[in-house]
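Workshop exercise sheet. Pairs work together: one partner reads the sequence aloud, the other fills in the structure field after running the prediction. Swap roles for the next sheet.
Pair: D.N. / O.F.
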Amino acid sequence: MAIDMAKIKARLAKQQAKASGGGGKSDFFELPLDTPKTVRVLCGPDGDPFRDYRIHWDFKEFTGGRPFMDLHYNFGEPDPIYNACQEMWNEFNKDKTQNHIKELAKALTPSEQYYCWVIERGAEDEGPKLWNFSKTVYTDILMLLSDPDYGDISDPIEGNDLKLLKYKGDNGWNVVKMTARPKKTPIFDGDPNGSRASQIMNNLPDVTSKLNKISRDEQERILSAFLSQGIPAEDVSSETTKYSSGSDNQVDNAFDDLL
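Structure field:
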């Protein structure tokens, strides 16, 4: 009897998930190092599969490992980290020899992150997963979408899967190699009209519902803890109290004291 390649692929996907510490359903698509994966981009009713947000990544030790959303850029809300960051950049621009201020400002500046929903091949029954990727990958996908040889790669019946591989580049940074499969395929087998896929794409969750939005008070606590690093132990408590006071003016005054 011939080997059932679908079963072999399913076993491979399961083994790769175990090797990467995965397993079980997740709302997020994970791309471990040196583990090739294939996905299909999903597009919601508005015709734009992508979302971009400003995210803070440099405070994981104060948030239990979770990045969080910038309140100012993403929601136009009062944001103590944004305020402190602007003050630092202003201070550095007055005297550009203050490299320590520049490094602090860079750490407080959120990074622009890109997201889209995908179906992971080999795990189709797990439903849509949220993929977070860099600006470089985002640009690569846009160029692919602009290529007339591919067109709408998210089409539920005549779209193209993306083959992905993440590896360490020569400079030590992670690199994602992406290629589109030339063969047009439906998102789901046994869904010739794309009705199952269309139903999923018409009901994709709001991306922000899966990201970490924390309160202004919590951001003040994180800012205080971050800026207290390197301060003598006997001074940390008083510095933390000043930064966590809940008043923009008091935060500004504490920042002036730090300078």
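Discussion prompt: The first strand starts at residue 37 and ends at 41. What would you look at next?
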